[in-house]
Write a sequence for this structure.
């Protein structure tokens, strides 16, 4: 799969897709969005990270808010943090000697998840960096706001394949233009789109428009 600039989708769509394909369709096909406490907390965390600016710590240089893209994945986005670690081979940075390898760090509110959603989003960022800079990366990290701890993620073959499959699927979903039928699950309670999705009504074969029309009667 190779996409043009106009066909690129947000990296964040991968997490939406893996959490719920209906949520992904509501956001990226129907352009629906709503905030709740969790999304606001996440937005504030990302805002603080991006405002911190770049810095250097010995053999590590830290850049924030780097624009990313991959034409092979059809994705674009912004990395929270990319650390550049001094290495024996890699890329050269302006006004520095030697070689450096990028190490993406994605910031998340809450705690580590058992599901691979966050790891796939991080891997997509790493694949973008590999394509943009012609380097090979082995790891990145997730930093969780509640635990205040960093969790290193290996960019192994399995995670790469899962990320590539998710990228293909999200393009298929958006290109198809059809929002999947609602299925009510426990995780729906934490979704900011719950009032728009209405899984307990739309999931019973009744469309949201029909439900509202009947309610107005």
């Amino acid at each position: 799969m190779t996409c043009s600039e106009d066909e690129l989708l947000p990296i964040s769509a991968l997490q939406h897709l893996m959490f719920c394909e209906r949520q992904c369709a509501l956001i990226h096909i129907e352009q629906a969005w709503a905030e709740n406490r969790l999304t606001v907390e996440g937005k504030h965390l990302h805002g603080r990270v991006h405002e911190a600016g770049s810095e250097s710590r010995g053999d590590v240089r830290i850049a924030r808010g780097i624009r990313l893209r991959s034409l092979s994945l059809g994705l674009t986005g912004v990395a929270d943090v990319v650390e550049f670690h001094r290495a024996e081979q890699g890329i050269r940075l302006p006004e520095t000697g030697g070689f450096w390898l990028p190490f993406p760090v994605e910031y998340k509110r809450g705690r580590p998840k058992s599901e691979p959603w966050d790891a796939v989003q991080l891997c997509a960022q790493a694949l973008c960096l590999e394509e943009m800079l012609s380097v090979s990366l082995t790891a990145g990290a997730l930093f969780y706001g509640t635990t205040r701890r960093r969790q290193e993620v290996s960019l192994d073959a399995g995670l790469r394949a899962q990320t590539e499959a998710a990228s293909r699927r999200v393009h298929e979903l958006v290109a198809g233009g059809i929002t999947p039928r609602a299925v009510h699950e426990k995780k729906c309670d934490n979704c900011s789109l719950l009032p728009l999705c209405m899984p307990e009504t739309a999931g019973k074969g009744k469309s949201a428009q029909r439900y509202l029309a009947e309610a107005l009667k």
Residues 181-217 form one domain. The chain is about 40% helix and 25% strand. The mean pLDDT is 86.
